[in-house]
């Protein structure tokens, strides 16, 4: 028997019961649900990661939909419990949904939502921040200052890497990878090499146009290349940022062998999912190559780091904060709530989850659609017109 979990309730007499496993930023998401006759229950348990049992207790006997978090294990057990309670909708408050067994959701006819777009630039900005922090050794230098070790300017003090004119490599040039590439190309005049399963024509056009602009102004033009393999990116780039989804094909994509292909002074950034890198191999590589640097927002066994990583001066580590801006987190909460609400109300799935702006406009009611349902096709859900 699952233990009871503490909750906060909005609109107790609402017809539809929607549970959020965590308190989420902003109030718009709560208001949108309440206005549409939902009773909203928010888990207030003082526990960062809820277990499957905790969530079963939250779902209870009657639940129309759940908004959950990427730290939770949404598999057969939870979808079966949600379906038994009459639930038809689940949304992660995240774009990544590797914590969700979509086949299990399909089996129980539960729609699975995610929150694309609203976090694209925010996440890319953190990847850019880590790139600069690693290239210019900002964390090491900050620690040095605070330790009272600075005795005056020296020619060799904290010499790092200049990005201008170097090559940035992007693995996974989807929404976030492309936004990051544009920032680094335009902001730092870097050349681009990328690898993705699909061609990113818009990104290529952007770099071409910027290169032409630079040339017309008497500067060295930037260039782009779509690599035929990921290894080509690893071998040629000076700064590499990982932005693929995590699935079976990207698990330990960067392993011992691939680390050894990279330049000795390369910089590796990961704001995707921790398991895209073999973190044990990475620690060994950092130890053996002190000029190689990494910037990590995500870790293989979050919230833990593999032994030795915390001791490495050539690693900058932050706790999975890439989407953590107020506007973005409030928007993620709104999209997640509207995914669940839309399914409960029988609305269609939005035709283009890359264009979710109409759902984020606080001055107008959101469209009558679910912003992003990843299994819309598998469940044969109707699709809205834009
Ligand atoms: N650190 C964070 O807080 C944070 C924030 C947002 C997103 N993310 C992660 O970033 C991921 C990407 O988000 P997005 O919105 O850009 O998604 P997206 O779907 O737009 O982009 C993912 C890209 O990866 C590519 N890809 C898939 N398999 C690949 C492979 N084997 N090799 C190379 N490329 C491959 C896809 O073709 C796609 O272009 C999310 O799935 C999530 O895990 C993390
Ligand atoms: O996938 C995501 O959205 C992130 O990891 C959290 O923003």
TrEMBL record:
Pathway: Photosynthesis; photorespiration; 3-phospho-D-glycerate from glycine: step 3/4. Its EC number is 1.1.1.29. Residues 130-322 form the D-isomer specific 2-hydroxyacid dehydrogenase NAD-binding domain. It is found in: Peroxisome. The keyword Oxidoreductase applies. Residues 33-347 form the D-isomer specific 2-hydroxyacid dehydrogenase catalytic domain. GO terms for cellular component: cytosol; peroxisome. Pfam families: 2-Hacid_dh (PF00389), 2-Hacid_dh_C (PF02826). One of its GO terms (molecular function) is NAD binding. PANTHER family: 2-HYDROXYACID DEHYDROGENASE-RELATED, GLYOXYLATE REDUCTASE 1. Belongs to the D-isomer specific 2-hydroxyacid dehydrogenase family. This is glycerate dehydrogenase. It comes from Chenopodium quinoa. The lineage of its organism: Eukaryota, Viridiplantae, Streptophyta, Embryophyta, Tracheophyta.
């Amino acid at each position: 028997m699952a233990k009871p979990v503490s909750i906060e309730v909005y609109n107790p007499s609402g017809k539809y019961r929607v549970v959020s496993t965590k308190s989420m930023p902003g109030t718009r998401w709560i208001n949108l649900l309440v206005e549409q006759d939902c009773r909203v229950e928010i888990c207030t348990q003082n526990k960062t990661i809820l277990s499957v049992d905790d969530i079963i207790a939250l779902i209870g006997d009657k639940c129309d939909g759940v908004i959950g978090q990427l730290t939770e294990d949404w598999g057969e057990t939870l979808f079966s419990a949600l379906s038994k309670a009459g639930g038809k909708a689940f949304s992660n408050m995240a774009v990544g949904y590797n914590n969700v067994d979509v086949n299990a959701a399909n089996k129980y006819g539960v729609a699975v939502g995610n929150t694309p777009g609203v976090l694209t630039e925010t996440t890319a900005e953190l990847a850019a921040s880590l790139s600069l922090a690693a290239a210019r050794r900002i964390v090491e230098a900050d620690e040095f200052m605070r330790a009272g070790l600075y005795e005056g300017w020296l020619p060799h003090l904290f010499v790092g890497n200049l990005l201008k004119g170097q090559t940035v490599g992007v693995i996974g040039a989807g929404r976030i990878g492309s936004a990051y590439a544009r920032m680094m190309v335009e902001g730092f005049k870097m050349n681009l090499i990328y690898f993705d399963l699909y061609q990113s024509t818009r990104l290529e056009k952007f770099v071409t146009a910027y290169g032409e602009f630079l040339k017309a102004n008497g500067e060295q033009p930037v260039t782009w290349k779509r690599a035929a393999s990921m290894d080509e990116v690893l071998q040629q780039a000076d700064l590499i940022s990982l932005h693929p989804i995590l699935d079976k094909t990207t698990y330990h994509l960067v392993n011992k062998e691939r680390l050894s292909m990279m330049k000795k002074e390369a910089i590796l950034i990961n704001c995707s999912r921790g398991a895209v890198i073999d973190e044990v191999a990475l620690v060994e590589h950092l130890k053996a190559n002190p000029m190689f640097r990494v910037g990590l927002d995500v870790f293989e066994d979050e919230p833990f780091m593999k032994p030795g990583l915390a001791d490495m001066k050539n690693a900058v580590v932050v706790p999975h904060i890439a989407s953590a801006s107020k506007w973005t987190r409030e928007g993620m909460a709104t999209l997640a709530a509207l995914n669940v609400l839309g399914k409960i109300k029988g609305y269609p799935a939005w035709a283009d989850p890359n264009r979710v702006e109409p759902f984020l406009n606080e001055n107008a009611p959101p469209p009558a659609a679910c912003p992003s349902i990843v299994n819309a096709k598998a469940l044969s859900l109707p699709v809205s017109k834009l």
